[in-house]
Structures are given as C-alpha cells and as structure tokens.
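Appendix C reproduces, verbatim, an entry submitted by the partner laboratory led by Prof. M.T., so that reviewers can inspect both the input and the predicted structure.
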Amino acid sequence: QVQPVESGRGLVQTGGSLRLSCAASGSVFSANAMAWYRQAPGEERELVATITSGGKTNYADSVKGRFTISRDNAKNKMYLQMNNLKPEDTAVYFCNVDPPRPEIWGQGTQVTVSS
C-alpha cells in the first residue's frame, strides 16, 4: 500500500489543540522529506509544514509558532501537533512526501475548529 493513513480528526473550539498522525509505508517514508498539507472547502490544497529525513522543519507563515511537525523514522510515522487552533485552520489534512507525489494522496483527516 502506497497511500499513507492519516488519523486524529476532531472538532475543537478556538484555542484548542489536536495531534494528527500519519502512518506511511517504509518505501514512502524512508529517506524522504515528508509534509503535511491541508485543503479547506473551496480552496486549493496548501503546504502546512515539512520535515526532512534528518528532522529539519519548515512551516507556513500561517501556522508558525502554533504547529509542530515531527517524525519517528523507526515507526514510519509523522505527527502534527496543533495548538491554539483557529477557525481558519478548518480543513482536511493530508500527509505526503515533499514535494508531493499524486499517487500517494490518502483520504486525509478532517479538522474542524469552531468559533
């Protein structure tokens, strides 16, 4: 299976927190930079955060200081800790390699932040 499995969906109030997980196959995960993306209703998919195989991270300006991306190479898993959530963070969140490959998109996981 190539597609990763995202989990951690939830409905939270503004200011709340959620932790997303991504389980990927070793062929996808190993030696690849990984990333979280999100797509809000009516919007294009956008890059949220990236992490290299060595752990170097980068964030979209909109989430800097609130989100933390991490990975566990031994478990082929990646995480996104989201704090101080805002209504504009409402979206379906996906994981993929960086840059993304079309055959790797999974179902994503829904995050809804109420005001």
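The helical segments are 26-29. Additional entries are available on request from the coordinating office.
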